[in-house]
Design a protein that fits this description.
The chain is an alpha/beta fold. It has 12 helices and 15 strands. It has a single domain, classed as Rossmann fold (3-Layer(aba) Sandwich), CATH 3.40.50. The chain starts with a helix and ends with a strand.
């Protein structure tokens, strides 16, 4: 994230807006400490959880600055999930969502991350939070069918299934979500840099299972590289009775969207069930703010 984008993020983030001085202070402290100490640091996260962090680990630094990098989506997860639930984190990266689901909500979690170096950090975050009994770790990609696919390996949080002509790639085993899941999840997060349609096509039984109430899925123009577009992903989910919503964590209000966001979008079905979940959830405290 460039300096301009980071500053814009700090100015507009819902938690940071309530105390911009504190957010900028955390940003400056992190920048200084990361330059003085290049080694991994165990950093406090939400509740009693923690994350490993070091310079340029962009999957974590946003959480350091503002508490929850992807505020609306992470807050929805915290309000929706219960201890008896199962959560699937597809494209888990270093495990921010996994740690929230298993470490804060207590939910059993499947965390799938294809890149070996990133998977190692994910596994370390699971270990330092003592979540081995809660989290099923899979060093795989997810797709429409079983096999292997080349992945880029030098693009940090934007690594993706490689296209012809892309270099510096790594061959990764790929499985379908239907085959990978040990039980039906109540919530799935999918962040696979444009490969969403392939993941959903490998999740036919999972999507049809009424136990699944919600998806947090990234939908944007990155899907064009695979000959797909966001409208096709949207229509596939609509056919399974999911509809796009936005979530306001402080009021716990769910509002329907006419079309998906350009980025993460929350898709819901069985709306009465979901509303009851978020409205009756315990308050969460993040950086001295409760919601």
């Amino acid at each position: 994230m460039s300096l301009y984008n980071t500053l814009r993020f700090l100015l507009t983030h819902p938690l940071a807006r309530r105390n911009r001085t504190e957010a900028f202070s955390r940003f400056l402290k992190w920048q200084i400490s990361a330059r003085l100490n290049p080694h991994p640091v165990v950093y406090p996260f939400v509740g009693d959880t923690k994350l490993l962090a070091w310079k340029r680990l962009t999957g974590v630094t946003g959480n350091i600055y503002v508490g929850l990098h992807e505020f609306e989506d992470m807050a929805f997860l915290l309000h929706f999930l219960r201890e008896e639930d199962f959560f699937a984190d597809i494209g888990a990266n270093v495990g921010s969502y996994t740690v929230l689901a298993a470490g804060v909500c207590g939910s059993k979690t499947l965390a799938a991350e294809p890149l070996p170096d990133t998977f190692k950090i994910l596994a370390e975050n699971v270990a330092i939070n003592h979540l081995a009994e809660k989290v099923i770790l899979k060093n795989i990609g997810l797709g429409e069918k079983n096999g292997t696919l080349p992945f880029t390996k030098s693009l940090d949080t934007t690594n993706h299934v490689a296209m012809e002509g892309e270099t510096d790639t790594l061959e990764i085993p790929v499985r379908t979500l239907d085959e990978t899941l040990s039980e039906a999840p109540q919530l799935i997060k999918i962040d696979v840099e444009g490969f969403e349609m392939a993941v959903l096509k490998g999740a036919v039984k999972t999507l049809a299972n009424p136990s699944l109430k919600a998806l947090i899925i990234e939908i944007n123009s990155a899907s064009n590289r695979y000959g797909q577009n966001s409208e096709e992903v949207h229509q596939l989910l609509v056919e399974q009775n999911f509809r796009p919503f936005e979530y306001e964590p402080f009021s716990r209000k769910l509002s329907p969207l006419a079309e998906p966001n350009d980025g993460n979008t929350l898709y819901l079905r069985d709306l009465d069930f979901v509303k009851n979940r978020v409205e009756t959830a315990k308050k969460v405290k993040v950086l001295e703010q409760e919601f």
